[in-house]
């Protein structure tokens, strides 16, 4: 009797198993399955072992995409973190200005990602775009559809416009959490505003900034929708980041095997960075409680 | 070092104050003599911290002037006033070592490294921080952190005054006593002006030469601990200082006597004469330790009923009923304790008359 009852408890966690199975395990195992087969069509598939992995690892274009991706993510951090902190420092501390700033900052975060790509296409098009046309009329040749550098600048500008508000909001939350007594003590101690920033604000923001770095690095590492809509990975493949390249292989060329192998490697890279950041975050935590 | 004067200072945290009740500080006129050890005593929310912040320059008062000696500093920020302030909770520069924390106020003022080193070492010596100088400040205990905050207040030699805003709240009781002693020592040695905010009367009375008692945004009395105890100028002082607080009995004037519930207590002629010029309501006030208790009737003795006896170790607290009033009496240990019915006498020297909360004198 007892045994039967305790077995019935499995029914209670069954929904979780089903959800996790359908949302993670089955899709992931399908990808693993694809990655070791050559698929020509329904019912026409051959086991190829590690061949796709070998091919993908030696794929020159994947190396380029990875380097591009890392460069992109690093530039994102270098631009967005300082800019976000500057915005947070410049924000009002009380009154109606706070609410106004928060709403303004939240706007880019609320727009669907492919819409952001569309907005920036129309904004920067050299023939009709408000910004693109203006720059060209000023005599500076600018065309993100034809010139790699212009494409990069546009993608970066879009990314910074889209995500700096998140960094600013995090930094602002960190700043607001500093008790007034710190600022008062700094005034009494005769500290310059640089010293206040260096010795009070920055150390107190360390926790939120670590989270900001982590979020922005991972997110930008997985970026897809906005640059896909804006440049489609071009001109050439100069803005083809990892996920764009992946989709090109999987959907464009319908090479499901290599794409699956690529996905798994991509997944492992993301996992590796997650682990590194998690370690860093843990250290920040212990550093503060010591 | 300087004499600090507050002239008709009032402060409101509202932008357009109308009522007197909008003011956190109401018309403060005080002089802090150079080299004095002052305590600012009062309940939470009475304006102590506001007053301190006005002296240091963290706040600009709504009205009135702040003078350091004869220099008007009302509109100057703290860094131009040459003042030190220690806050209730430890403020540390987490990324710096203890040494750098203590040196920070000096370095910001561009002192040469030798002077900085000498001063930091002196202060660390006084506060027993010498062994920790090289450590990161962030890793220390709450006590040590507050000592560093105190140290940053003490490290500058030439300040007009050092202001303490309940600095020992977060400190362990035994260390509290030790640090208070240290501050007192420093004061005796350097004769700096110290202003010490607290809501703890023991702290105020042991630390300061002069105590200012604040109540609802006003300074109700400034005096030595003895004066505050023997001559409370305001009902609040009588009630706030001393344990238990002063007894108050609502009364009416009848010639040179205060009468209540059919009983009468004689007053001295002078007090009675002055009281006739004042508006009521009147109250009699007497400290529990000055109220005499007898076990037999006699001249000027009023019958009471003993309600409760509390033994506090070196003394006892009696609660007695006098007509419709409940009074506290503090009896020395060796005195016999009456039970049931007893008689109290109000010694004239210690019986005070208050008109509308203020001492008639």
Question: Could you describe the 3D structure shown?
Answer:
The complex is a heterodimer of chains A (290) and B (361). Chain A has helices at 2-8, 10-35, 51-57, 60-90, 96-110, 113-124, 130-137, 148-176, 180-188, 193-204, 206-221, 225-230, 242-252, 256-289, and strands spanning 37-41, 44-47. By secondary structure, chain A is mainly α. A two-stranded antiparallel ribbon of chain A has the order 1-2. Chain A is globular and about 75 Å long. The model of chain A has no long low-confidence stretch (mean pLDDT 85). Chain B is of the alpha+beta class and 361 residues long. Chain B has two domains: 4-233, P-loop containing nucleotide triphosphate hydrolases (Rossmann fold, 3-Layer(aba) Sandwich), CATH 3.40.50; 243-359, OB fold (Dihydrolipoamide Acetyltransferase, E2P) (Beta Barrel), CATH 2.40.50.140. Helices cover 25% and strands 33% of the residues of chain B. Chain B has nine helices and 21 strands. In chain B, strands 6-7-8-3-9-10 form a six-stranded mixed sheet, sandwiched between helices. Chain B has a six-stranded antiparallel sheet with strand order 13-12-11-14-20-21. Chain B has a five-stranded antiparallel sheet with strand order 15-19-16-17-18, with no helix packed on it. In chain B, strand 11 (247-254) and strand 12 form a beta hairpin. The A-B interface holds A 179, 181-182, 184-185, 187-192, 195, 199-200, 203-204, 288, 290 and B 53, 56-58, 77-79, 83-85, 87-89, 91, 93-96, 104-105, 108-109, 138-139, 149, 152.
